[in-house]
Amino acid sequence: MNFSPKIIVGIVAIAFGVGVVVANYYGVTGIETVQPSIALSSTFSGIQASFCPSPACETIPIEALKTTQSRLWIAMYSFTNENLANAAIEAKNRGVDVRVIVEKQQAGGKYSQHDELAAAGIPVRIDTNPNLMHHKFAVLDETYVITGSMNWTGNGVNENNENVMVIDSLELNQQFANEFEKVWEESTPI
User: Fold this and answer.
1) Which helix (H) or strand (E) holds 189?
2) Which of 66, 115, 134, 182 is catalytic?
3) How far is CA 17 from CA 20, 48, 52, 75, 158, in A?
4) Given this model, what pLDDT does residue 110 score?
5) ∠179-72-46 over CA atoms, to 5°?
């Protein structure tokens, strides 16, 4: 799946915080920096981005998770945010196929949500990469991807300079789903 140079530049620009200005310069459209009061809607298309610290860094993923109907696969280096974990549990309770992979070095942390997710019946795996599973993404249904520099942690939302994006793209969704499945197969169930 190939993307035009304009699309690649736009996505990279957003991921590294240069955002809308560079993306617009290269003609990438559909990019919106979302303020905390704006939620993902059923008519959303394109890219929503937020820069942390900001409550929107939590609101945007939670609103996206609320719309998920069939698949929610999360690969997260560090996952300590209780509100995001609860949104994943709510998705599971709606019948969504929820799976989570976490980094082995982070899974044993005091605030890691992996035990709570597993207790709710969500399959959770610990990566077996001898180095780091440093991913920070979620695959939603067949269309959306949540990604960016932000771990799903309190510090990621409230303290650090981070970014989080929800991208509406069949092609990216499939690429991230393929990566998730690869890491999932290489990981150990808890």
Assistant:
1) strand 188-189
2) 134
3) 9, 13, 10, 22, 17
4) 82
5) 80
Residue of 92, 114, 135, 136 marked active site: 136
Phi, psi of 64 (to 5 degrees): -65, -45
Identify whether 115 is a catalytic site residue.
Answer: no
Evaluate whether 32 touches 46 at the Cβ level (below 8 Å): yes
Catalytic residue among 97, 104, 141, 168: 141
Respond yes or no: is residue 136 known to be catalytic: yes
pTM: 0.78
Domains (range + CATH), the chain: 54-159+169-189 (3.30.870.10)
Distance of CA 36 to the CA centre of its chain: 17
Q: Residue 34: what pLDDT?
A: 39
> What is the mean pLDDT, run by run of 10 residues, along the chain of 190 residues?
48 44 42 38 70 95 96 97 98 98 87 93 95 97 97 95 96 97 96
